[in-house]
Amino acid sequence: MDRDSTAQADREGAGPLVQPGDVPGILFQTGYDRLYAADAAGAARAFRLACAADPGSGEAWGALADSTRDAGEAAGALAACGRAVALDPGVWPWRIALAEALRTAGRFEEAVTTGQVLTTERPDSATARLGLARALAAAGRRDAALEEYREAVALRPGDRETALELAALLVEAGDALGAVELLQPLSRRDPEDADLHAAIGRAWIALQEPVKALTALRRAEGLDSDGRLGCAALIAALEGGAGEDLSAAYVRALFDRYADRFDQDLVGKLGYSAPALLREAVDRLGPVSERGVPGLRVLDLGCGTGLAGVAFRPLAGHLAGVDLAPRMVEKARARALYDELSVGDVVAAVEAVPGAWNLLVAADVLVYLGDLTALFAGAAKALRPAGRFAATVERLDGEAATSGYALGPSRRYAHSEAYLREMAAAAGLTVLLMEPCSPRREKGVGVPGLLFIVEKPAA
Predict the structure, then answer these.
(1) Which of 32, 230, 306, 459 has its CA 20 to 30 A from that of 385?
(2) Contact at 8 Å (CB) between 363 and 307?
(3) What is the DSSP letter of 400?
């Protein structure tokens, strides 16, 4: 570097005028001083001159990459990282920085490829896993990103930044319950962390749990002195009555996480008997059949792990099931009972193919729906002439019954008999059977319920 260049460095604040032999060391010291003083742009100027003074120094290029990244110069950071790695590919931090620089520069697939190489070399590196997770998320590969985020959290369980990013992606993927379970232990460990409380509040909103959401958001707002987290608007909306209903996200997340122990808990601990009760009632009314057609076309709404499929398979020539929770559907598929299984909403399922079914079964499923108007209307279209819809509900009695349905403290809906009859009549369905039942126990006591079977008029 000549005298004029050194003088220019001094004018730009990169360091004092020095003898040529001292330039690299002085520029390095100046650059790091500027970094420590939060002057990323000044640091970048000094390190840029250090690279010019010694272009073969990987350390100089690595320092330039750090400073240009901090200064928001994505292209400069990428170029400097590339030079550093080319000069000394064995330096792990520079390779990590290169993957990050590729992502920041918008070259997502290259960032993914680089991250995959790093995680293959060091599968136990939380930093490499996190970098790959971010690249995959940026590339729109959410499922793969979730896997890498989970690995990063497992390797570094106390890292709140990683946990917050994973929680946000879980909410986006429909597993807000997983986000809550991930963040709550961290919030108990650090109760003054506003970001954690705000993220938990947003997850509860996605799960349609307004009371819990308000608790978390109010805590976050009290800790967020400058209002950067935007909790006030969310609190106002919730206090105005938003978020009172159950959501598909809540139901899907709940049962996906419950899938592995569902049968054991439901049958063993809760005395779940809805499928058996429905099958007995269907048999009692006599067979539903079409002349010349062996077996029935049966659709199991909210099939879960397939417990109702066990009860109704003997009646079915074609047995289909649908459930919101993918892991529940996997469990049902493992039973090898169903001819057709899908992940989806029960209302959408009955609306999908008009006149397709002889029998619709909903065993302990309507407790996750409040307004049944769309379901009954869809059932009427989905059934063949003389087809039947059999279901259980939790029973709503007393003064509350005038509302038709209500969400209870267990986050399950109860419906009144009058409401069910009203829904059937509005859909043009005839009530063949409406009787008390107890589809399961709660705290050792039978839950009051209703079992109904309605029929579509014959052609």
Answers:
(1) 306
(2) yes
(3) G
How many whole angstroms separate alpha carbon 246 and alpha carbon 254?
11
pLDDT for res 16: 42
Count of Cβ atoms closer than 10 Å to residue 39 Cβ: 18
Look up residue 117 and give its amino acid: V
Helix-helix angle 58-70:92-104, to 10 degrees: 40
Token pair recorded at residue 307: 């417990």
Tell me if 223 sits within 8 A of 199, measured CB to CB.
no
Contacts of 39 (CB under 8 A, 6+ apart): none
C-alpha distance from residue 436 to each of 269, 397, 448, 457 (Å): 22, 12, 7, 24
> In 3-state terms, what secondary structure has residue 447?
coil
Helix (H) or strand (E) holding 127: helix 126-138
Tens digits of per-residue pLDDT, 201-227? 988 888 878 888 889 999 999 998 888
Residue 437 corresponds to which tokens in the numbers above? 């039942």
Claim: this prediction has a pTM higher than 0.85:
no
pLDDT value, residue 266:
47
pLDDT at residue 272 tops 80: no
Per-residue model confidence as pLDDT tens digits over 106-131: 889 999 999 999 999 999 999 999 99
Instruction: Extract the tokens encoding 439.
Output: 């589809």
